[in-house]
């Protein structure tokens, strides 16, 4: 709630919660005086716990407001300010979308020392220094995009980044080596880098990238299309070091600690220490810290011969984390981890006992445990998934049943490999483990790619009608689980009927509608044209090579008619290879000369050369014309003219303009303005258009083009 409200309102809400907590406490004392001891006990129980809950909420809101005004508010004044800085990288970069992202600490502004604060520095070239060295350069600050509970702004605050920044020019850097030969802040980054190189010596390719992502949380080398595959089938939790990983690592350690002559307290202490060492390697992701704290609390209970309660441990871990970092609640990974754990604790055991009894065989117990865990975690995390990802994977149960045994086996093989790979003399002895890890990782990747290519594996909720159908379906489920009352059967029938027929009616009414999914940056764009479960990919580019296939899979496209390659750089070819690994379009249009084109020829696909000022049909009723050497594209759909212009153009009129420049000579009704994060257009540029939408940070915007109505931008 604090991430949505204004910080000033958050401070007021903290005082309101404190007042309500005091009022509930006084009310419990006054109303608790009754002759019936059971009623007195129940009233005091409810009012006391309500007071405790309100008091905790008030304290957390107050901490959030205080942290914001003391550390963030004055830094936000640097938004869109260019200044000379002295900065200190805190870690090695995370490479994504063709850029290097550094967490850096700002030490000086325009030669004046300031209280150090952390920002995220995005560079197109890597810095020639290591952690704890210093760099003097010119940067431009920008604030992250807000507007939601789990927006980029909230997520970056949770990671400690108060602002974003990018360098102004790359030739004016001054590097200053650290005064210490081996500073303390460089130990952990070097250790993680050394362990990562040890894995690279054993395994290469996508398998090594998968192991480093799973073990160390280093996902920068894992291709974006693999993230897309796991997200489509509901197994993205496997690629993030989270509570599940900590639980599996803890179980692996206990297999060895149980065989040592140690008492219960020493075993618990050893497990806690070893898991903390593993946290050092992973960089302390907040969801893994949550799991570690729960393990610490349960270990303390076990060492005193008490039974640890999962919900109490979860609540204590959440309070502890939010007390140390009030911004941690803005992390979507932390929220999903907490909600999934709560769902498993509240519903998992009941569902498992319903599916399988204690006398059931091991296979049935495994199936029951996996199904109950997946269902309970999905139900509790569904609101966040819908709000953040705008969709739901439909193969969560099946994919977890198939992939989880392979994943667990791979993780248990990779843990000893992680240790043995650091010892050069052990190289020959670890080859069986290397072979096992490589085969398991390749099997996991192949199965995830195959399952993600199946039609209908993901339900997109970008359409408000589909979102309403999901809400009605959940209402019917809640009515089924609720107590009986007079109109319950009627309400259930109405909810189910509307939930089933709303998507059908929406599909019938949108048969003639052409939908555009648009994403891009200041240099390139990706446009997917969709109609009646058919699609065409136009103007391929962007650094996210899995973007086009992700859009096609999320929208449940059954047939890909054509692909238009407007540029032949490595970005376009990477996206093309990713699409053609799962789909076979009828036509592949290449603008300009193919320059040999051997890597663009695929069996069963008609290869054509697209020329300027010629019309090409990419979908039935959808025509495309290239102009100005590929810098401009005109699209005609449902008697509407759409214009994609990445460079200057002459006077023109269109119904939709997709651009990254200020084009006052173009007359349009709706504009999609693509820009880099932090490089927003000036007010004068945006004032040229009466209706526009900004596309930043690899966002995807959907535009509906009906046959008999105006072009409209989806608000969800």
Architecture overview:
- Among the domains are: 7-74; 82-181, Beta Barrel (OB fold (Dihydrolipoamide Acetyltransferase, E2P)); 461-509; 514-713, 4-Layer Sandwich (Metallo-beta-lactamase, Chain A).
- The chain is 47% helix and 20% strand.
- Strands 15-14-13-12-11-10-23-24 form an eight-stranded mixed β-sheet, covered by helices on one side. A seven-stranded mixed β-sheet has the order 16-17-18-19-20-21-22, with no helix packed on it.
- Helix 5 crosses helix 14 and helix 10 packs antiparallel against helix 11.
- The longest helix has 40 residues, at 37-76.
- The protein is globular, with a radius of gyration of 28 Å.
- The mean pLDDT is 81.
- It holds the Pfam family Competence.
- The chain crosses the membrane at residues 12-33, 45-65, 238-260, 272-302, 314-347, 367-389, 401-420, 427-445, 465-482, 489-507.
- Its main location: membrane.
Key words describing this protein structure:
ComEC/Rec2 family competence protein, 19 helices, 20% strand, alpha/beta, globular, seven-stranded mixed beta sheet, 716 residues, OB fold (Dihydrolipoamide Acetyltransferase, E2P)
């Amino acid at each position: 709630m604090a991430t949505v409200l204004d910080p000033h309102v958050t401070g007021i809400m903290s005082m309101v919660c404190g007042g309500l907590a005091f009022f509930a406490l006084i009310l419990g004392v006054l109303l608790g005086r009754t002759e019936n001891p059971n009623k007195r006990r129940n009233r005091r129980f409810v009012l006391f716990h309500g007071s405790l809950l309100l008091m905790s909420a008030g304290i957390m809101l107050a901490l959030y407001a205080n942290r914001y005004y003391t550390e963030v508010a004055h830094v936000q004044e640097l938004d869109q300010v260019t200044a000379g800085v002295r900065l200190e990288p805190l870690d090695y970069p995370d490479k994504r979308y063709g850029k290097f992202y550094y967490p850096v600490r700002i030490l000086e502004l325009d030669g004046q020392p300031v209280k150090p604060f952390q920002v995220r520095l995005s560079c197109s070239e890597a810095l020639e220094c290591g952690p704890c060295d210093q760099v003097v350069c010119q940067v431009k600050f920008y604030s992250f995009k807000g507007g939601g509970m789990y927006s980029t702004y909230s997520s970056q605050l949770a990671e400690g980044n108060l602002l974003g920044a990018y360098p102004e020019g790359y030739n004016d850097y001054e590097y200053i080596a650290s005064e210490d030969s081996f500073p303390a802040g460089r130990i952990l980054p070097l250790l993680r880098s050394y362990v990562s190189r040890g894995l690279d010596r054993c395994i290469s390719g996508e398998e090594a990238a998968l192991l480093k992502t799973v073990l160390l949380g280093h996902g920068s080398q894992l291709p974006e299309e693999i993230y897309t595959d796991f997200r489509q089938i509901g197994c993205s939790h496997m690629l993030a070091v989270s509570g599940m990983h900590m639980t599996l690592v803890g179980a692996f350690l206990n297999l060895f600690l149980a065989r040592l002559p140690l008492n219960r307290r020493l075993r618990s202490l050893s497990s806690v220490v070893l898991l903390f060492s593993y946290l050092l390697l992973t960089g302390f992701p907040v969801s893994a810290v949550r799991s570690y704290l729960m393990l610490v609390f349960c270990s303390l209970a076990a060492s005193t011969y008490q039974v640890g309660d999962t919900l109490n441990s979860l609540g204590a871990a959440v309070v502890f984390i939010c007390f140390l970092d009030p911004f941690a609640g803005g992390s979507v990974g932390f929220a999903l981890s907490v909600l999934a754990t709560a769902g498993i604790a509240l519903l998992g055991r009941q569902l498992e006992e319903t599916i399988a009894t204690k006398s059931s065989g091991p296979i049935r117990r495994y199936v029951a445990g996996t199904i109950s865990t997946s269902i309970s975690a999905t139900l509790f995390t569904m609101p966040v998934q819908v709000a953040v990802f705008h969709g739901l994977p439909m193969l969560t149960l099946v994919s977890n049943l198939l992939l989880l045994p392979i994943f667990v086996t791979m993780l248990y093989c990779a843990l000893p490999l992680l240790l043995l790979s650091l010892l050069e003399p052990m190289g020959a002895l670890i080859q069986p483990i290397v072979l096992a890890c490589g085969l398991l990782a390749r099997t996991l990747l192949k199965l995830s790619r195959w399952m993600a290519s199946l039609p209908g594996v993901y339900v997109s909720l970008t359409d408000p009608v589909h979102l309403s159908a999901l809400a009605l379906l959940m209402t019917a489920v809640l009515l089924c689980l609720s107590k009986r009352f007079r109109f319950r059967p009627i309400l259930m029938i109405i909810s189910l009927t509307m939930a089933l027929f709303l998507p059908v009616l929406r599909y019938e009414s949108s048969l003639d509608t052409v939908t555009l999914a648009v994403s891009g940056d200041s240099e390139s764009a990706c446009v997917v044209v969709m109609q009646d479960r058919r699609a065409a990919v136009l103007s391929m580019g962007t650094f996210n090579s899995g973007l086009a296939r992700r859009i096609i899979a999320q929208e449940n496209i059954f047939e890909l008619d054509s692909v238009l390659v407007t540029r032949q750089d490595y970005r376009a070819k990477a996206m093309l290879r990713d699409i053609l690994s799962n789909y076979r379009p009828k036509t592949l249009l290449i603008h300009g000369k193919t320059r040999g084109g051997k890597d663009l020829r695929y069996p069963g696909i008609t290869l054509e050369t697209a020329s300027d000022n010629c019309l090409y049909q990419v979908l039935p009723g959808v025509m495309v014309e290239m102009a100005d050497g590929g810098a401009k594209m005109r699209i005609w759909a449902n008697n509407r003219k759409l214009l994609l212009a990445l460079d200057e153009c002459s006077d023109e009129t269109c119904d939709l303009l997709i651009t990254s420049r200020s084009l006052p000579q173009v007359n349009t009704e709706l504009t999609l303005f693509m820009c880099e994060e932090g490089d927003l257009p000036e007010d004068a540029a945006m004032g040229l258009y009466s209706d526009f939408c900004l596309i930043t940070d690899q966002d995807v915007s959907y535009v509906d083009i009906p046959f008999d109505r105006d072009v409209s931008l989806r608000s969800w």
